[in-house]
Design goal:
649 residues, alpha/beta, six-stranded mixed β-sheet
Length: 649
């Protein structure tokens, strides 16, 4: 047995390169094939939109999660429902990074690319490092499919792939042959080639198989013949890996036993975690959950998921448009429910007037914005962080709204609870900014103990709260809690608590319509003071040595790439500090002190510098922006290079 140890920078998080560059051990299996033990692997499945790459990636991820590896995923697919077959715009991919240790990103570059056709190979080859493995479906490398993407000669034969370890596998032919006894047409049989590929990769990385077979039987329960055909194709792929001489090596990645605290874990995507967080928040508040929403990528999954949980008092309303969705949610909040609306950037723009109305009414309302590339319709299936300034200022008048941003897929659960806490405690709409990267990506999530969840119960107004000069007891809807400045929440129909509601300015206390200039000035300043006074935790700074002179500050989904980059620099002996914001309005009270503790502040964002603009304006700190707006998350190596240059500048 021999071993090879990777450098600290490579071990940090998804450095890329071939599998042989990571720590490995070699041992023959019982059949004489070599088993190589590695600490991490990055796999990318790529093919046509109709090739089932997302399903294939999801199943491989689920089995990897059940095996106990730490993991992070990056689904990437076209906006079109069915893009032209065999073309570059139609390529769909799914990248999975899994390891025997704590990881933070889907990886910078795949160790293994599975390319189902020439378009998939061409679209992804630039990301594949020299020495990596490429598994190609040779059946698709015929003249017409290659011509569609500009290949005059087959790249499998012209020497252009000599720098890679290429495995040509006739996936289509092998799948059709495996299913010849099912009486399927060739076209029907070909649809199972993704399951053949999944079986091959499952053998190659010693993934469990039982749950995938169970999943297929459940998915095609009404078509048992189709279910069995997919299972046979899946097993055929496994057996092919076991018997073919082309795959002389398989790989083992041990469970990440030291990466997680003790507990029960499951794989979870950001949208699913956010859905569960909303349900948990409503249960902890002892309120019905009402979702008023209009379908929009990449937020629609939340509507789909919440619609399955009527048993938890969840009511979902698929509205005719974005404005109707938020109007219904605000109406539900007026009626005493936890009102929620979900959308993406274009929908937030349409909802802006009603968000302003919620500010005026001072009712709890959650606006969930799963950000995507813009402007306008933009890039519906690509990620971006460009709605921060819209969330902060995108309403007429002075209409301040708290802003909360999760940092990882699993953190979406906690962020939803936190947003609900703020909305219910301070009687305000809250904007929760996730994005497509978090929404569709997944990672292990420690299922919390219900006893550890925060108590979010609210006290509705049930009696008059003010005594007039003549001794009459009345209800004043805008008489505030002196600590939180929140107004009372009175459920309509409560005897004696009738009150006026609407968007025209209210008189302080009584809630009567008021055009008085002094009153308007008072109400505007009071609403701002309420948001400014929201209790949020101090910003935590990760500066192990205390010797760092450069701070990298992030928010939202940049947490993984930033942290991975910071780990790489520290592994090289370079001191650097890191801090990450969850609360963007109001900022943590110690943020100014933290910023001025360092000589340089670098702010990486997937926009053109929106947080950096806010930081410069509020604290007069010369924050350096590093920006990317290509629809994809940062790569760790890319950020490490930028941060190193900033330190040395």
């Amino acid at each position: 047995m021999t071993s090879q140890v990777s450098s600290p920078a490579e071990q940090a998080d998804g450095a890329g390169g071939s599998i042989g560059e990571q720590r490995s051990e070699h041992a023959p299996d019982g059949a004489g094939k070599e088993i190589r033990r590695v600490d991490r692997v990055i796999i990318r499945f790529a093919g046509d939109s109709g090739d089932g790459m997302q399903l294939t990636g999801d199943r491989f991820t689920s089995e990897t999660a059940s095996f106990g590896n730490d993991l992070s995923t990056l689904p990437n697919f076209p906006a079109e429902i069915r893009a032209p077959a065999g073309t570059l715009p139609g390529v769909s991919s799914f990248q999975l990074h899994f390891a025997d240790h704590d990881i933070l990103t889907p990886g910078d570059a795949p160790n293994v690319l599975v390319a189902m056709n020439p378009a998939a190979l061409k679209a992804n080859l630039a990301d594949v490092p020299r020495g990596a493995e490429i598994i190609v479906n040779t059946d698709e490398f015929t003249k017409r499919p290659m011509a569609k993407v500009g290949y005059e000669r087959s790249p499998l034969e012209d020497g252009s792939l000599d720098a890679y370890r290429v495995h040509g596998v006739p996936l289509t032919t092998l799948t059709v042959e495996a299913l010849k006894d099912f009486g399927l047409s060739r076209k029907e049989a070909e649809r199972s080639k993704n399951m053949f590929a999944l079986g091959l990769l499952s053998w190659m990385y010693h993934r469990p198989t039982e749950n995938t077979e169970k999943f297929l039987r459940q998915k095609f329960a009404k078509k048992p013949d189709i279910a069995e055909a997919n299972i046979v194709a899946f097993r055929a792929g496994w057996n092919f890996g076991e018997t073919t001489e082309d795959f002389a090596v398989s790989y083992e990645v041990a469970p990440a036993t030291k990466a997680f605290p003790a507990g029960t874990y499951r794989n979870i995507s950001g949208n699913l975690a956010l859905s569960y967080g909303l349900i948990a928040a409503a249960r902890q508040a002892d309120l019905p959950l009402y979702l008023g929403s209009y379908p929009i990528t990449p937020a629609s999954d939340i509507l789909h998921e919440l619609s399955r949980h009527k048993n938890f008092g969840v009511r979902t309303f698929q509205a005719e448009d974005e404005i109707a969705g938020i109007g219904a949610a605000l109406g539900a909040a007026f009626g005493g429910a936890l009102g929620v609306t979900t959308t993406s950037g274009p929908g937030v723009a349409l909802k802006s007037e009603t968000i302003g109305l919620a500010v005026s009414l001072e009712l709890p309302l959650l606006i969930v914005d799963i950000q995507r590339g813009g402007p306008s319709t933009g890039l519906p299936t690509k990620t971006e962080q460009a709605d921060l300034l819209q969330a902060m200022y995108g309403r007429n008048g002075e209409a301040p709204v708290p802003i909360v941003a999760p940092r990882t897929a699993a953190d979406c659960f906690d962020a939803a609870l936190d947003a609900a806490r703020i909305a219910l405690t301070y009687r305000t709409p809250v904007l929760l900014l996730s994005d497509g990267y978090l929404a569709n990506g997944s990672e292990p999530w420690r299922i919390p103990d219900v006893a550890d969840l925060p108590d979010l119960k609210v006290q509705f107004a049930t009696a008059p709260n003010h005594t007039l000069a003549d001794g009459t007891e009345v209800f004043w809807p805008y008489k505030r809690d002196p600590e939180t400045l929140a107004r009372p929440w009175a459920v309509p129909g409560t005897p004696g608590l009738e009150h006026r509601i609407g968007g025209i300015e209210k008189q302080d206390g009584t809630g009567n319509i008021s055009y008085d200039p002094a009153n308007h000035d008072h109400m505007v300043r009071t609403r701002q003071a309420k948001i400014d006074g929201i209790a949020v935790p101090d910003l935590e700074v990760d500066d192990p040595t205390g010797a760092a002179r450069t701070l990298v500050l992030g928010w939202g989904s940049t947490y993984g790439p930033i942290t991975a980059a910071v780990r790489r620099l520290r592994a090289q002996g370079i001191p650097i500090a890191q801090a990450h914001l969850r609360h963007l309005n109001p900022f943590p009270r110690n943020l100014e002190e933290v910023l001025k503790r360092y000589d340089k502040v670098v702010v990486p964002e997937m926009n053109l510098g929106q947080l950096a603009t806010l930081i410069r304006a509020k604290y007069l700190v010369d924050a350096q922006s590093y920006n990317q707006v290509n629809g994809m998350p940062f790569k760790a190596e890319q950020l490490a290079t930028v941060l190193k240059e900033a330190i040395n500048d």
